[in-house]
Task: structure prediction
Amino acid sequence: MPDPGRAQHQLKSVQALRALAALFVVGFHCTLLLHDNFNRDVTPWNNGNAGVDLFFVISGFIMIVSSRSLARQADGWRRFIWLRVVRIVPMYWLSTLTKLALVVAIPELARHTYPTTWNTIASFLFIPSLDGMGVARPVLAVGWTLSFEMFFYIAFAAALYFAIDAVIAVGLLMVVLSLVSLTAQPDWPTFTNLASPFLLEFVFGMIVGRVFLQKRFDGAPPLLAILIGVAGLAGLAVLPADGGWQRATIWGGAACVTLCGALMAERWLGQRLPKLPTETGEASYSLYLTHGFILPVIGVALGKSGLTGLALGVVLTVTGVVFSVVVALVVFSAVEAPITNRLRALVHGRKKVATLASQSVAGLSETVGGLSDAISPLSRTVTPGGKPPATP
Result:
C-alpha cells in the first residue's frame, strides 16, 4: 500500500503494522481460495479484510506526519501529489497490465476477471467502474482500495494548496461524503461509490497523526501500550463487521486503537523488532499488489498434490503467505524501489538520491534464506493427485 514516507522509516512499529495489514489480506485470500476451489465447508477468514481498514487508518496518519514540511512550502501541494503519483501509479499500472496479459495468455490464472474497454480505462485512472459482469471492481481486484487512496490524496493536496488545516478541512469533507452514502441509490453512477464510510478511516488516522505530533504518546507505560495494541489487534482479527459502516466503526476503530498502541510502544519496541517485519512493511505495497498472482499458481500446484482436509488447508495457507512475502521482497527490491526512486529524483530535481533498494537489498538474501527454511518441511508433505482449482 501507500508509501510511508520518510517519517515512517523512523517508526518501525508502524512498518510492522503495514506488514500485518498486508498479511491479513493475504490470509483472507488464502482461505477464500480454499473455500472456492477445495472445500465449501471452509469458512473464509473475513476478518482478513480488516487489513484494508488498517491500511486506510495508517495512510491518514502518515499523510499528517510526513506533510509537515510541505505545508510550509508554496508548491508543497504540487510536490505532495507528484510524490503520491510516483509512489502509487507505476506499480499499480504494471500489475494491471500483467493481469490483462494473463486474461489473454493464461485465462486459468485470471478467472473472475471480466474487463471491458471502459472498465480497463477507468482502472488505470482509479475511477470506480463496472466490469463485464456488472460488478464494481477494477481489472486488478485489489485496486478498489487505491481509488479511495487517490481520492484522499487529492483532497489532502487541495488542503495544502489552500493552506488550510487538513485534519479539519479534509476531515469534514470525508464525514460529509460518508453521510451522503446513506442516501445512495442503486441508479447512481458507479464513481459515487467513493462516497463511503471507508473515508472515515482516513480521518481516524489523521487525528492519531495530530495527537502523535503533539507528543501525547510519549512516556506511555509499556504495559499500557501492550494492552492497547493487543486489544486493537484482537478486534481486527475476531470482531465481525458487515458493510461499510460496521467496518468503519468496528474495524476502523480497532485499527485506530492498534495504531495508538504501536506508537506508544515505538520508543522501546521499535529498535527490538526483527528485520523481517520491517522489511515486509517496506514491501507491503508490492505484497498487496502481487499476492493475487502467486496464490492461483499455488492453488493449481496443490490441486495436483492429493492433499485434503486439514493438511491441505495448512499447506495452502502457509505456502501462500511465505511465497507471497518472498516474491514481494524480490519485486520491491528489483522493481518497485528502483522505479520509485528514479521518479522521486525527477520530482526533487536531483540526479542522485538514496534508494529504498539500497536499504533492503543487503538483507534480502538473509530474509529469503530464512523463509526458505520454513518452506522445506512443507514440500515433503505433498503427494501426487487431486484437481486443479480456480483462482480467487
User: Anything to note?
Assistant: Residues 5-272 form one domain.
